[in-house]
User: Fold these one by one.
Assistant:
Number 1:
Amino acid sequence: MSARDWPRRCWIAVLLTGALVAPAAADTQAAFKEWLAGVRAEAIADGISAGTVDEAFKAVYVNSRVIELDRKQPESRITFVEYRARVVTQARIETGRARLAELGPLLTKIGHRYGVPPRFILALWAIESNFGEHIGSYPVITALATLGFEGRRAEFFRGELIAALRIVDEDHISAGNMLGSWAGAMGQCQFMPSSFLRFAVDEDGDGRRNIWDSTADVFGSIANYLAGHGWKADETWGRAVRLPQGFDSGLVSLEIEKPVSEWQKLGLRLPDGGELPGHHLPASVVQPDGPGTNAFIVYANYKAIMKWNRSTYFATAVGQLADSIGQE
C-alpha cells in the first residue's frame, strides 16, 4: 500500500467501523434511558419524590470505567502476610494512636453508647478510608446506575440505586456530593446505600446522617453497624495461637465453635506457650492462608466484623490493627 493510498483506505475502514459502532452505541443509550425510566417509576412508587429522581438522573450516564473495574479479575492472590503488611502499617498505627489521643472524648462517648471500644472504630475508619482521606471520587448515582444496567449483579445494584435515591430524598446529602467508590460504597466508612439506611446515625444532632464530613456521624455509624451485628461489649475479637503438631485441620472453620477451654484441651496455646485466656468463651479457629500457616482463635466479635466484609484477611487485619492502636 502506498503512502498516498493509506489515508483513503483508512478513512473507508473508519467509516465502516463507525457505521457498525454508532447504531450499537445509540441502542445502548436508548436501552439505558428506558431502564432509567423503569427505575424512576419504581422509586416514585416507593415514596421517593419525582423531583429528587429527576434531579439525580440529570447527569447520569453509563460509565465504561465502572464496567471495566467490575469485570476486572485480580491477577494473583496475595497471602495474608502480604495483605497485612499493606493494611496494618506502622504509619496507620501511629496515626490511629494520634487520633485516639486527639478525639478521645468523642470516641469514649460513642464507645460507651454502642459498646464498641474506640480502637475498633479507628481501625475500621483507617482501613476503609485512611482516616477519612480517601472516600472515593465516583458519583455514586452514576456508578450504581451503570452497575444496575450493565447486567452483572443487576438486581443488587438496582436496589442500591433506589436506596441511594432515598438518602438524597431524605436530604442527608445531594446527589452531586454523593461520592464514593466505583462500586457505590460511600463516605469515610464506605457504607453501601442499604447499609447507610440501616446503620448510619446522626451522632452530631444536626438532622443529617453525614458519613462524608461529620466525624461524629462516621464514628457513630461504624459503632452502630457492629452493635447491630451482635458485637459483645465485654469481649475482644480473638488472638494468635499456636496449634499442636497433628492438629485436625477439619476443625479450622468459623462453622465450628467450642469453648476456649475445649480448644485448650486440644493443645492450643498462645504463641509463647502460655495458656489461653477466657476459657468460657465460645470460639472458632481460623487460618487465613490455609493449613500450616498462622492460626487465630476468634470470638463472636470477629464474626461481627465479617458482616462488614466477608474476608478472614479483612477481619483479622482489623483486629490486629485495633490491638496495635490500643497498645500503650
Number 2:
Amino acid sequence: MYKIQTLNKISPSGLEHFHSNKYTYGNEITSPDAIMVRSASMHEMDFSSDLLAIARAGAGVNNIPVDKCSEDGIVVFNTPGANANAVKELVICSLLLSSRKIVSGIDFCKTLKDEGEKVGPLVEKGKSAFAGPEISGKKLGVIGLGAIGVLVANCAKSMGMEVFGYDPYLSVDAAWNLSRSIKHAKSLQEIFSECDYLSLHLPSNKETKDLVNSASISSMKDGIRILNFSRAELVCDDDIIDALQSGKVASYATDFPTHKLIDVNGVIAIPHLGASTPESEDNCARMAVFELIDYLENGVIKNSVNFPDVDLPRSTDCRVCVIHRNIPNVLNPITAPFTAANININNMVNLSKKDYAYTIVDSDKYADESIIKQIREIDGIIRVRVL
C-alpha cells in the first residue's frame, strides 16, 4: 500500500484516481511514499527515508527544496501546461485592462454612487480620462514560448496583433503548437525595440532575475505596456515604478503584487489568480496523480524538474530502478551483478539531467537482495528500487 501525504487541499478529481486497494492518502499521513503539494512551503520539512517523490500540482517549485531532494534521490514533479489555459485567459484579460484603463474607469464609477440623476452626465464628462488604444494592429512581444506563452501568442494573433516570439530553448512540442504567423525574434533587443506590449513567460533563475530593469526599459518603446504572469522576480519593482512615473512605461499588469507596487498609478495588481479556476486545479491534480502513479508503480519519470524523463515499457515482471550521480563508469557495475548471477537483461535505459542520472533495468529473473546490495554499494548510487 502506497501512502500519499497531501499538504494542501487537492482536487478530488485527481485524488479519485488513487485506487483504494493500492493507495491511502490524506494530510495526516506519516512517513509517506510521496507527497502532493500546491503552495505549502516544504523548505523546513524533514523527509523520511521512505519518501520517493513529491508532486507539485502546478508549474513553479520554489516552495520545494529541489537540491536537497536530488541529493536524497527524491523525484520532484510539476504539472507544466495543466493550468496554461487559465493563465492565458488572465493574460489576455490583462492585455485589455492595461490598454483601456478599465480598472480606473470602474473605480471612477464607484465614486458616483450618491450622485443620483447626475450620474449619466458625470460619466460622459469623466470618461475621456480613461481612453486607451485598441490592441488590434499593435505589436506584442512574448518572451518565453512554453505552454502558456504559445497560447498567449496564438490568441493575441487571432485578435489582430502582430506577435513576436522569443525563446532560445523552444521545444519541439511548443514549435508544433505555435502559429506559423508568429514572428521569430532573434534577440531580446528586437522584442524591446519593436513591441508596444510585452508579456513575460519565463522561470525565475539567476539569468532571468530583474530581466525588466532600468537598462532594459530604456531600450523599449516609449509607452510600452508590460505583463508579468510568470514570477515577481523577473521585474525590478523600483525600476518599473520609476518608468511608470516618467511615462516610459504606460502600464504594468502583474499577478504578483508586492508592498511597493500596491496603489502605484499605472500598476494593475492581481492577487495571483492565474491558475485560480476549478478547471485548472482539476487538471493539475490529475496530472500530478498520474505522474506519481506511473513513477511509484513503474518507475517511469515524466515532468520531473530534477531528474530526466525516462519512459520504458515493461518487458518483464522484474524492474530495477537506480538513481545515481551522472559520473563515468556507473553502468557496467550496475549490470555486472546480473551477469554474474546468470540473469539476462531484457531491456535497459539510462538518461541523465545535469548532475544526476536514472537507469531502469528489466531482467528475465528476479533480482534478489544480494544483487541489490551490490548495486547500492557502487560509488555514486543514491537510491535503488525493485518493482
Number 3:
Amino acid sequence: MKSGLEVNSISHFYDKHQSLDQVSLHVDAGSVHCLLGASGSGKSTLLRIIAGLEIPITGEIKVNGVTLFDDSTNKLPENRPVGLVFQQYALFPHLTVGANIGYGIRHLNRAQRSEMVDKYLQLIELQDRRDTMPHELSGGEQQRVALARALCCEPQVMLLDEPFSNLDSRLRADLRELTLRLLKDAGVATLLVTHDPQEAFAVSESMTIIESGKVIRSGNVKDLYYQPDSLQVANIFGPINSFTSHRLYAAVPPLSGEITNLAGQTEEGTMLLRPELIRLRIPNGDANATVKKSVNEGSTSLLLIELDNQLDLFARTLNPVPFVIGDRVYASFS
C-alpha cells in the first residue's frame, strides 16, 4: 500500500535567514493536502525542497516509503517521482503543445511518446491543439498543458504552487476540479500551496498552516476551522468573534443561545464564535441589536452588529440581505 508523501523535521536557511523550522507533514496517496500561509511564510521553499531544487540542512523526505533526502541521501530532481506545477506555466515557447507535454519522456521511443502525449491531450480535453504553439493558447489552456506535462512523467507526488491564481474565478474552479480529479484517479499524493482559505476548503480534507517557516497546526480542515486551538489559527480563516467568558456571560441575556460546556465556570477564558453562527432576523418587538456595517462578499454579506449591551459581533448572512445600516435586528447564536 502506498504511503504517500512524508516530510519530517525539515529546516532550511537562505544565508542567515531561517526560511523553514522543523516542518513536518504527511500527504496520503490519492489525496489532496493544502499548505496554507501568507506570502513569505515558506510554502514555495518547501515545495522546492521536496522537488530537489533546494537542499535543507536537516530533515527527511520519503515518497511511498522510499527516501529522497536524509543525512546520507539526496536524490537529484530528475530522479525523484515528483511533479511540480508553478503559478507561471513555464511552457517552452519554441515547442508545440505536444512537444511540451512529451518533454519529460524523451527516453521513450517515438511511438510510445506519441501514445502518451495523445493520452494526456485527451485527459485535458485539448486533443485538437497538439501542433499549436503556447502563445496561441489561453491562460487556462496553457495551465492544462503544464499539468499534462507534469502528469505525463507519471509522478507519485504532485506539487502545485498556486497554479490557478492567475485565472478568473469560474475558469479557476473548473480547471481546479479537472486537475484534482485526474490526480486522485491516478493515486497521486498532491500538495497544493495556497494563501486562500476558501480554496483550501473547496479542494482538501486536510491542511497544514505555516507561518514564518513554522507549522502552526496541521489536521482535518473542519477541525481547524471549527475547533482551532488558538486565536492565531482561528484568525487565518477570516473575521471571528472573540471575547472573554465573563464578557460572554454579560452578553447572554440579550443574545439567546446555549453554551453547555461553560455552565457554572468562573475562570477567565476566551469564547470564539464564527460569524455564520450568529443568526439575524427582522424583529417582532424583540430587537436586541443594531446593524453598524455591511460588506458584500458575493453570495453572502458580513455584518457588524452592536448588541444593546454594547458588545460588537460579526454576523454572516446570505444575500440579498434584508437589513441596511442602522436597522434594528434580533440576534441569536447557534
Number 4:
Amino acid sequence: MKATTFGELKSQGYRYRSVRTEMAENLAAKIRSKQQIFPEIHGYEDTVIPQLTHAILSGHNIAILGEKGQAKSRIMRSLTTLLDDEFPVLTGTEIPESPFHPITALGRQHVAAGDSAPIRWLSRDERYGERLAPGSRIADIIGDLDPSRIIAGESLGSESALHYGLLPRMNHGIFAINELPDLDYLVQVALFNVLEEADIQIRGLPIRIPLDVFVCFTANPADYSRSGKIITQLKDRIGAEIRTHYPKARSVGLAITRQEIQNLIVDPRIIVPEFMENIIEEITIQARMSPVVNQKSGVSARLSIANYETATASARRRALLLGENPGHVRLTDLGNLFASSSGKIELDPYRDEAVTEFQVIQKIIDEAIREVFLEYFPLKKYEPTMDQVAKQIFEAKGLEISDTMNVESYRDILKKVPALFDFMRDRGWDSDSQTLACGVEFILEGLAVNQKLSRRKLGEIVSFKSVDIY
C-alpha cells in the first residue's frame, strides 16, 4: 500500500536517492540484467548509447549534438525510463520537494509537522520537463517575482513572492533544453549555478534554492562550436558532449521509419513490398550523399517517414478508386513524393541555379531505384534478360503505365513482353495479380534508370521505349 504520510514512508523503509544516483543505479541494474537500455533508439548501440551510459554513470549533465532528425529529443525523453516508476514528494508545495530534503520555507514547515506531513507520488513522466530555447526567458526557466502576489501583500524579499520557472518545477527530475545555441545569453548565465552548484537564485533575493535536477541540452554541432553562440563558461560546466549520427545501414533507417510512421490506414489494407520500403529509405540515403543538397543542414529521418506515408496514401487512393483490397504500393506512387520531400531537402546555395528542386528530387529518386534494383537484379547476371525485355518493348512499340491502372492491365503487358517473367519468377512475384503489378513497375523503372529503356512522364502516365534499335 502506498504511503500517504512522511511517517508511513519511513516505516516502509523507503530510501531517498538523488536523481543522478537513481538514474545511475537503475541503469546499472539494466546493464547487469542485460536489458536493452533504450529499445526505441536504433543504430546507436555501439556509438551513442555507450557514451550516454558513461555520462549517466558519471552523474554528468549532457549536451547531445547532432544534425536534424538524429533522435536527439527522443534520447532525452527516453531518459525517463531510468527513473523510478513513482517518487514521493510533499503535498501542498509549489515545486516538488522530497520530505527527506525540503528546499523551500514552506517545505520545511510541512516537514516540521513531523510524521503526519502528507505526501503524494509523482509518475516518471511528471518528472520530465522540456523547453525550446528560442524565445525562452529567465522567468520561463528559472523564475521571477510574481506581481500578483506582491500586490496581494507578500514581501518583496520572501520566497512566497516568487513564481518558479520550469527548471525548479523539475526538482528531483530531468530538465531538457532543445537548441541550446539559441538560448538568450542572460538565460545562459542564469544556468551557471544550476550546472555547477546545483542551486538557483531569483532576481536579487538573498535566497538560494538547492535543486536536484539532471540537465540535458541538444544542439546542432555547427551552432554549438561557433564562437559567440554559447558562453564559454556554460560549455565548461556541461559534463559530457555526445555526438549523434545518421543510420549507418539502410536496415537501421528502415527500422526507424517503421517505428515512426503514423498515418497507415488499414481500410482498405495497404501492403508495402519490401523493395518499395528499401527504395523509400534509399531516397533519404541518396539525399544525404547528393552534392547539390546542403549537407550542413542535413537530411532528417522525417523525409523517409513522410515519403512512406505519402506513398501509402497514394496506394490507398488507387485502392479506393479501383476497389482493390488489399492495396499495394507501386513505383508509380513515388511520383507523388515531391510534396513530402520538398522542404525536407535543402538545396546547396552554391549549386547551379538552373537545376530546380523538382529535378533534384527526381534525380535522387532515380538513384535510389537504381541502387535497389541492382541489389535485386545484378547487372552481371540479368543483363541478357534486360536486353531481351528492351527488344520485346521495341517490337511492341512501347508501353504505358499509370498509378491508376488496374492489375489486369499488367497481365496484358506480360503478354507483350514475356521476358519480364524471368525477373518475376526469380522473386516469386507472379503468384498474385497485385504482386505482379508491383513487380512489373519495379522492373520497367529499374531498366529505365539503368538506361536500358527510355522513359517519359506526362501527368500520371509513364511511357517506356527501347533506347536501342533492333
